[in-house]
Design a protein that fits this description.
mainly alpha, globular, single chain, 593 residues, 70% helix, 25 helices
């Protein structure tokens, strides 16, 4: 039995759109007014969407539940799989004590507060966003700055603002991957356009941060460092997003910014060391006691992660891994059971379980390779993995529910109703497209969830007004990054990390105006991309459901995997040799005894 979508159930677009918007209004009310936990608000949202789909859009209940389950399944794999493994890798570095060395190394490079903000809040925070995400960057960098003597409110606010540049590619690119899955646009195309938009913001943020901290005159004193930090990050963000894909821009750009700034500081120093007036005494004093071999060992999990993700992104490697480890099946009872309202072809509903080529698997392998290198036993690693699962149980529920909502909204016609209503803004819709992404991240605290909520809506609305859908789908991710600094979840994490629990409203007032300023800039750029800057839009082809056989380069993929194994073995051997050559005992916190 087939069912045809309905996009105007009341034969009155305004009334239909009002009802279709109810789940979005509900999640807004639940998070902001009612102050529900994220997973509770998400579950309530998906339940309301199912009720509306069945009672208003007359979607068969079975199809509504199957659509929700399909979305939740995709939320679990590959979305949550990436998040779980990324946080697991971060957790093993923390539990082993190696992350204390990483933090010490970052803080010991300079004592100037302006340069510390660039290195820790901007560059190191971006690197952490790329490897873990989930609030980890703000929590770590804000606590580091506060420990070094920054005013806690400034530390939290600066780190929230600095965290805007990398959010779209956070968690090993999962926001872009989700946007692709929901919209049907290729990952690489979204990555390229986002990577041609955000570098303009990225190159500006270091200057913005230092002016905010020290004023314009004191900012000019460290202008060389600001330019090096921002330009290095922006260039490598552009390069990696356009040529390597969405998984590594934050990792590569963050590391490049750190390295370039360190090289500059070898040859140039500000004339005066700048500090805050009446700043609190530092609670964390960096030391240069760690040897280069210890620093390399501490960074080794992230070095291995970078190599693995680059390799996993090569098409021949993907083909070889999928040839061995890919399960693809149609969703029973849902596949080709829904027809679009315009009488188009039946919609295919398939699930791709690429358990080997998934980027989460690459991260998991990186973590297990790293375990002996950083001084842990594999039994410790297993315990930490289960600890990570428990740590993320509520985010997992939230993400699965949000994607369940996205799928039932898309399949029932709810999304198309909203798209038709938004299309009435006509020429100006591209200007408002980033606002949807901003709103989604403000509500959910996640660019991933925002793309799941509004990705299909952005696509459908752009198509309705004759604008390239890639522009508005990418704008959803780009606009979302500046909503992160005012998201209630992000603010709660930031205040907790610096001991300001109960002062969330102060931090919100500190960041909100900066969020609006940056959002306006992205809105203008999106409008220009839609109608003027067509050269910024990459050429692409829509994804299809064809299951092509093994690619001709499959054996090339196996050759690449052999080379990868050799390279990883060489890295592991070098780390272990360096550790044995210059042994230095250190305690569980990573400090020399």
């Amino acid at each position: 039995m087939n069912w045809t979508q309905i996009t105007d159930p009341f034969n009155n677009l305004a009334l239909s759109a009002l009802v279709a918007a109810a789940p979005i209004v509900f999640i807004f009310w639940a998070l902001i007014i009612k102050k529900m936990k994220g997973y509770q608000a998400s579950l309530g949202t998906v339940a309301l969407a199912i009720v509306i789909a069945v009672l208003v859009y007359r979607m068969p209940a079975g199809l509504a539940l199957l659509s929700t389950a399909h979305g939740a399944l995709y939320g679990l794999f590959p979305v949550c799989w990436i998040i779980i493994t990324a946080v697991f890798l971060y957790n093993i570095t923390v539990r082993s004590g190696q992350f204390e060395i990483v933090k010490n190394f970052m803080a010991s490079i300079t004592s100037d507060r302006r340069l510390q903000a660039l290195l820790i809040a901007f560059s190191f925070g971006s690197f952490l966003e790329g490897t873990a995400g989930m609030g980890t960057p703000v929590a770590i960098t804000a606590s580091m700055l506060a420990g070094l003597g920054f005013n806690p409110l400034y530390a939290a606010g600066i780190c929230l603002i600095a965290n805007t540049a990398p959010v779209a590619f956070g968690g090993v690119g999962i926001p872009i991957i989700v946007a692709s899955q929901v919209s049907g646009l290729p990952e690489m195309a979204i990555s390229q356009l986002v990577g041609r938009t955000l570098p303009f913001l990225s190159v500006f943020i270091p200057l913005y941060l230092v002016v905010l901290m020290a004023g314009f005159k004191k900012t000019l004193e460290v202008l060389p460092a600001i330019l090096v930090s921002g330009i290095a990050f922006a260039f490598f963000q552009w390069f990696s997003s356009n040529y390597l894909g969405p998984m590594l821009p934050d990792v590569i750009a963050g590391l490049a910014s750190i390295v370039c700034l360190m090289i500059l500081l070898k040859f140039w120093k500000p004339k005066e060391i700048w500090r805050f007036h009446d700043e609190p005494a530092p609670t964390f004093t960096p030391t240069h006691a760690y040897s280069s071999s210890q620093v390399v060992r501490a960074w080794s999990p992230f070095i291995i992660l970078t190599v693995m993700i680059i390799a996993w992104g090569l098409q021949p490697v993907k083909d070889a891994l999928d040839y061995t480890g890919l399960i693809k099946f149609n969703i029973p009872g849902l596949h080709q059971a829904i027809r679009s309202e315009d009488g188009g072809t039946l919609i295919a509903q398939t699930f791709k379980f690429n358990y080997l080529s998934a980027s989460g698997t690459a991260i998991l392998i990186s973590a297990f390779i790293s375990i002996p290198l950083i001084g842990l036993r594999f039994t410790d690693g297993i315990k930490i993995f289960f600890f990570t699962l428990n740590q993320l149980k509520f985010p997992i529920i939230t993400i699965a529910a949000i994607l369940g909502f996205a799928y039932v909204a898309n399949h029932s016609g709810i999304t198309l109703t909203l798209a038709n209503a938004l299309a009435s803004t006509g020429f100006l819709f591209p200007f408002f497209a980033p606002v949807l992404g901003w709103l989604g991240v403000f509500l959910t605290g996640s660019d991933t969830s925002s793309n799941a909520l509004f990705g299909k809506l952005q696509f459908a609305t752009a198509a309705a007004i004759g604008v390239d859908p890639l522009v508005t789908v990418a704008a959803n991710a780009s606009g979302g990054v500046v909503g992160k600094m005012i998201s209630p979840q992000s603010i709660a994490i930031a205040t907790a990390s610096v001991g300001l629990i109960g002062q969330e409203s102060k931090l919100f007032r500190f960041t909100v105006k900066h969020s609006f300023i940056m959002l306006f800039a992205i809105c203008l750029m999106t409008l220009a991309q839609a109608y003027v800057l067509h050269w910024m839009i990459p050429a692409y082809r829509m994804l299809d459901s064809k299951n092509a056989g093994p690619a001709p380069a499959i054996w090339q993929g196996y050759a690449y995997l052999l080379l990868l194994a050799g390279l990883l073995a060489a890295i592991a051997a070098a780390v272990l040799f360096a550790a044995r050559r210059k042994p230095r005992p250190y305690d569980v916190a990573g400090r020399p005894e």
